[in-house]
């Protein structure tokens, strides 16, 4: 284990002297860097005076991230899988060897995507104070000189750079995306996907390198005793090899209990402002970060809308009495108007609809089962179904449904919601609703459904 540079006396105890073998190969390089210190490095080193910084506090924040970040990573990858990469409709579609194993996204439980996407977005927001607290606790490491004393430390610093840069990039672009503020000038989906893999690689490497020290630091001080220690009794930790402890600590202005409480309180506040967007009921009023508003309007159609009919460029005359639905399959074509669809057997299901930005809501939908529409064109065992909208532009004007999504008994071409006709913004005259399907693939203003049979696969 490496030792730190000698430091001034703190509390009557000198920091340990550097070991003669403290440098790894190439030793001459690290020693030359140490002898030629850039201007301001020593001043910066002396400026970090908080007695709170040290391995224990860093490990407390780090242990929270160690548990929570894998959930963010896994739910993000699951959400990507929900978009159907095997149909080339997940974004980005061309990811090379980073492509996930292909499988048909399940329709049960019907709230699956609501949970994965809601957890991904909400937990990502809630962790922001913990990430900032962790960065504050380790910021003196950015001013260590020399920046490394061995090739192993070079690897550690590289993973730290990718880790910090990666998580800040993911947080910043994610927050802008859920607020529909595309200020970054590049495709969010592509950047977020590849950025996630870079961050994940750095996170795994960092955990492998630092987990032993995290465990040692947590064991160095009892959590309960430390959280009961008041500000007046707060003392610096002993000097550590990573130089997290201040060389000349000043008096404590807050206890470690206060620092942990500040971060925890910030996380709870963000949770209160966010979690309601994934829930129905009174908590939706507290979701001040909900991008599409907490009160989308009165009546049965009064729930969030991601893309309005005006934004989609669908003209009112396209959805009027002249609207027709075209069904294709097995070389056959069937055309239906809305009265014809209403004359078919109707099915009602209470299903959530969930958006990639994190909001979701559960409503009661009524319409014709997709498998009944497939049977009209002679496709009893569909391999897929391509649904096309009246919308003529946009990434999600078409969506391909997997066989299990077409055949699920609650998969509908919905005509009504909560007992009334769909509003124009919610997809009138007809829209798709499928259990556990991402909202953007629940196509609105449906114009055509092409059912592909197994023999056509």
What does this structure look like?
- There is one protein chain.
- Strand 1 (325-329) and strand 2 form a beta hairpin.
- The chain has 457 residues and is an alpha+beta fold.
- Residues 1-21 have low confidence and may be disordered.
- The protein is built from 13 helices and 10 strands.
- Helix 3 packs antiparallel against helix 7 and helix 6 packs across helix 7 (188-220).
- It folds into 2 domains: 27-276, no CATH class; 309-456, Oxidoreductase, molybdopterin-binding domain (Sulfite Oxidase, Chain A, domain 2).
- Strands 2-1-10-5-6 form a 5-stranded mixed sheet. Strands 3, 4, 7, 8 and 9 form a 5-stranded antiparallel sheet that branches.
- The chain is elongated, with a radius of gyration of 28 Å.
């Amino acid at each position: 284990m490496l030792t730190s540079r000698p430091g001034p006396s703190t509390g009557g105890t000198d920091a340990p002297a550097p070991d003669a073998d403290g440098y790894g190969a190439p030793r001459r390089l690290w020693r030359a860097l140490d002898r030629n210190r850039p201007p301001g490095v020593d001043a910066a080193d002396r400026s970090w005076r908080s007695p709170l910084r040290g391995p224990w506090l860093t490990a407390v924040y780090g242990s929270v991230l160690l548990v929570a970040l894998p959930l963010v990573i896994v739910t993000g990858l699951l959400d990507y899988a929900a978009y159907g990469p095997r149909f080339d409709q997940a974004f980005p579609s061309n990811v090379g060897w980073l492509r996930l194993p292909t499988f048909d996204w399940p329709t049960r439980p019907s709230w699956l995507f609501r949970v994965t996407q809601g957890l991904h977005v909400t937990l990502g927001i809630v962790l922001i104070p913990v990430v900032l607290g962790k960065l504050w606790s380790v910021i003196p490491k950015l001013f260590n000189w020399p920046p490394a004393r061995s090739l192993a430390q070079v690897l550690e610093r590289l993973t730290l750079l990718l880790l910090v840069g990666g998580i800040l990039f993911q947080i910043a672009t994610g927050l802008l995306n859920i607020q529909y503020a595309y200020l970054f000038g590049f495709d969010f989906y592509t950047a977020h996907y590849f950025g996630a893999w870079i961050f994940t690689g750095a996170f795994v490497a960092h955990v492998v390198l630092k987990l032993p020290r995290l465990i040692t630091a947590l064991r160095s001080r009892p959590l309960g005793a430390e959280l009961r220690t008041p500000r007046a009794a707060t003392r610096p930790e002993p000097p550590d090899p990573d130089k997290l402890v201040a060389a000349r600590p000043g008096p404590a202005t807050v206890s470690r209990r206060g620092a942990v409480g500040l971060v925890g309180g910030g996380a709870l506040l963000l949770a209160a402002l966010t979690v309601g967007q994934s829930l129905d009921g009174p908590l939706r009023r507290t979701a001040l970060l909900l991008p599409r508003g907490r009160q989308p309007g009165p009546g049965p159609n009064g729930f969030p809308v991601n893309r309005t009919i005006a934004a989609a460029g669908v003209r009112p005359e396209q959805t009027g009495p002249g609207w027709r639905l075209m069904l294709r399959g097995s070389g056959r074509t069937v055309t239906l108007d809305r009265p014809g669809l209403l004359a078919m057997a109707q099915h009602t299901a209470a299903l959530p609809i969930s958006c990639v930005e994190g909001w979701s809501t559960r409503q009661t939908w009524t319409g014709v089962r997709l498998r009944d529409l497939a049977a009209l064109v002679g496709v009893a065992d569909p391999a897929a179904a391509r649904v096309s909208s009246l919308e003529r532009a946009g990434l999600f004007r078409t969506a391909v449904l997997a066989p299990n999504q077409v055949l699920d008994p609650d998969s509908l071409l919905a005509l009504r919601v909560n007992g009334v006709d769909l509003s124009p913004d919610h997809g009138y005259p007809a829209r798709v609703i499928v259990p556990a399907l991402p909202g953007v693939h629940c196509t609105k203003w449906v114009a055509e459904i092409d059912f592909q049979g197994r023999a056509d696969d």
